Amino acid sequence: MPDVQWNWKAEITEEEEMSVDHEKIISVSKMSALIEEWIHKERDRAIMKRRFCDGIIYAQIAEEFDMSERQIKRICYENFEKLINHM
Question: Please, what sign has the CA dihedral across residues 75, 78, 79, 80?
Fold first, then answer.
């Protein structure tokens, strides 16, 4: 798999989209749709949306879901791998 940096933006200009070569830009609405489609556990979907759509840091998500930061990172990592395969 190529080394790709992912950025999420609510709005993507046509110029930004055309200039992308080594990085992939995906809108928040598209990320949300991907999460809905490919993440099957309700809790994991909520965590992924908080992290990748709302931009909330791991520590805050852990507190919100009454879980450890390590658990949140694991959930995000595992589910992000699923999403990458469908982008």
Answer: positive
Give the count of domains, the chain. Answer: 1
- Does residue 76 contact residue 48 with C-beta atoms inside 8 Å? yes
Residue ranges making up the domain that contains 30: 5-85
The amino acid at residue 83 is L
Helix axes 42-52, 28-38, angle to 10 degrees: 160
The pLDDT, as a whole number, for residue 10 is 45
Nearest-10 crossing angle of helices 69-85, 42-52: 90
Could you tell me which residues are beta bridge partners of residue 23? 5
Whole-model pTM? Answer: 0.72
Please give the mean pLDDT across all residues of the chain.
81
